[in-house]
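Q: 3-methylmercaptopropionyl-CoA ligase, please. Structure only.
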Amino acid sequence: MGWMADETALERNEANFVPLTPLSFLARAGDVFGPETAVVYRNTRRTYAVYRDRVSRLASALARRGVSPGDVVATLLPNVPAQAEAHFGIPAAGAVLNTINTRLDTDTVSYIFGHGEAKIALVDTALLPLAEAAIAEMEGPGPEIIEVADPEAGFPATGRHTEYEALLAEGDPSQPWIMPKDEWESLALNYTSGTTGRPKGVVYHHRGAYLLAMGTAVTWSVGIRPVYLTIVPLFHCNGWCHTWMMPAVGGTLVCCRDVTAKNIYDAIADEGVTHLGGAPIVLNSIINAKPGDRRDFDHVVEVFTAGAPPPAATLAAIEPLGFRVTQVYGLTETYGHVTECLWRAEWDGVPQAERAAIKARTGILMPFMEDISVHDDKGVPVPRDGKTLGEIAIRGNAVMKGYYKNPKATAEAFKGGFFRSGDIAFQHEDGYMKITDRAKDIIISGGENVSSVEVEGALMHHPAVSLCAVVAKPDEKWGEVPCAFVELKEGGEATEDELIAFVRERLAGFKTPKRVVFQELPKTSTGKVQKFELRVLAKTL
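A: Structure for 3-methylmercaptopropionyl-CoA ligase:
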């Protein structure tokens, strides 16, 4: 039977098996990098020892306010230090972190508070009206608000709620963290709109976040002590897990509340930023920055870009400015990026135009993933011929546990043993994928997912609207914006400005159509609107 017969006594125990969790990165960093700078924001600079102590205070204070393991604690915060602390402090209390998109409308925030059953919500002072209105719409009591003031940004505490620093003062910096007993335990809850009106709750486990963070450090030339600028909102896939990654490598997290070209250039020049991530709209803002907003720097900044396929022209324009861009791809359901356009040595000498075209590919799977390939409608991988289209199918450690309280959608997403992305692509002979179309009706505006169904639903509430269809219209600044095609009822009257304002009252600004076109909609023989024709038309507007 060989030596395997003697494996029976070789069992897991506390000495040789510890559940993977990103919490361990900061627990270690507090000792290894204790006096070094961990977090920077405006005039605030905190060491790793202080960062860890504040996280301990947050975890302790939450527990004293009734947060138990498994409870949900939400945040409505921009990229400020409290949002970074929440990424460690909430899980350190055994709770589940729910970072909410700060650009959502009241009704959606209210739904997320209720569906996730958040017990407490950390809310930026500027976002208090949104949170308070959302709670007022709920049938139940809603979460307790902890106000996170930001006086330096012009948002002093209102006094209406317990302030964040007062909450931390209630906590004990020596309080032991509640580490997961099983790495499959839930770490975070992130809501994504997808293709339906109501968002779905995507559940992350500790194992996936740990492995994505570690795998990113391996492949992204992160090294030790990088300086990372938080451009990606931490409510987007928890900032692609980069905030969890930073303590593993002793990096400095530079928080950026307002994403502008000036702030990006200032952070690079003044703080020595080495890495950042962002949607193509961020790259465009860097390229098109006013001369007065630019700053000189003498190092190459590594950039991950995702959210929409970046145009080759954008990639060609930004690299001479001192940025090395790598396209990555993923979804909320995959903790952020799971593919990267890893550069190959044989491409080193190619002309700039061809180089940009190669970099515009979606790429290949990252090392913590098992299989990312393009499948036909029967679940069979398509030929790697650079032309046959199919759906991107994903399998690996950074795939969600499933959709919270939605077993039907979970089963559908995992059909055939892969996560079905809904994104259409082909695969080159070398395995590199290239997205040609995304889930048909999703509009990605400035890196934000917009559900056309949700926008159409809002438009249909207008008394003059008979039928409508919303598609993506290319936009130089945002990548894409919603464009609405509307048929009015007989005798009905409405103007473009009126309908845009009507939707703006009901949905977040980025979901509002930027153009409204009045015409008869093209339909199939069964009455289904032919959106592909409208997409072609939208490109001409």
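A: Brief note, in case it's useful. The mean pLDDT is 92.
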